[in-house]
Amino acid sequence: MMDDYNFDGHNWLKGMYNLRRSWSTTFSNNKFSVGLLATSRCEGTNLVLKKAGNRTISLYSFVLNYEKVQKTWHANEKIEDTRCRHGKPATILKNNPLLDHGANVYTLNIFNLFQVELFEPLNIQLRLQPSHSDHFSRVFEMQYYGQNSKVRILVFDVQKEEIRCSCHKFDSMGILCRHALRVLNCMNVHIPEMYIKKRWTKGMRNRLSNETSACVSGNESEMVFVNQKMKFIYDLIMQCKAHEETRNMLTESFNSVAEETITWLENLSIKDPIACNDLISSERNDQSTEEPLRNPLSIKSRGITNPCIRRHWDEKSKKGKRKGKVETFK
Fold this sequence. Notes:
- The chain has 13 helices and four strands.
- Helix 3 packs across helix 4 (about 60-85) and helix 6 crosses helix 8.
- It is an alpha+beta fold.
- The radius of gyration is 31 Å and the shape is extended.
- This is Protein FAR1-RELATED SEQUENCE.
- Keywords: Metal-binding, Nucleus, Zinc, Zinc-finger.
């Protein structure tokens, strides 16, 4: 384009061309991205945060709304997991080995993508290259009929059942492309195990829960331990806050556990058990001296003239004032 339109002296276009490996998807199609763009995660996060609150909401209400969003996500995941485990997807053809294998392995959403990739190659012309093929490997050329499309080169290793395509769809999406499925279907080969990503399978949720429990029972990182125990203690406190007896019992249990923990740390010759003791004692005795947590100061954004959201009672009061003015005028 720069040569055709004589843009050789354009500094910005020169700089973008020099940085083409950073922004052009042609150079990143062999990276696993599941089709997400660079700004997809940022835009998704902003959408969730906008649903959880606005610029006039308090921090406490925002956290509650965000927890509701998380609960909705978890509920949808459980429903989808139940559908994948107990339901079977509807297949277009019956007794097709590749299709049946994909239906038994993949989740419902991934199977729909896999089914499209499997039946799309009906319009693809397949040509074998005898000069580059031998007894152990096959080299194919694939191109759509009646179109000036790109020629895809596909190499299939018969012994290892490895298949490589120049489109790199498996590298970027995690499922085999239509060119590879066309060759596997012609060679009467099931989907090789190495090309079935565990994250797209039906029992992945159960595997993650088992790995998490195994991580808890074995060696785990400090951050995982802190997050899990904080969530456990927080849920326990929320259950006990409604009754005074349970609150007192929970406080006594925490105090006894804290004393036993400090004694145990001292026996293990921990360097700073005094700091832990001072921290616990300061939390017991100096709770009244702590400054209360307050909402941050509201800052008027640029270009916004009405930062306050109107309430329904404001509309009623305006209607009442208008009626009063009309009556006095009459």
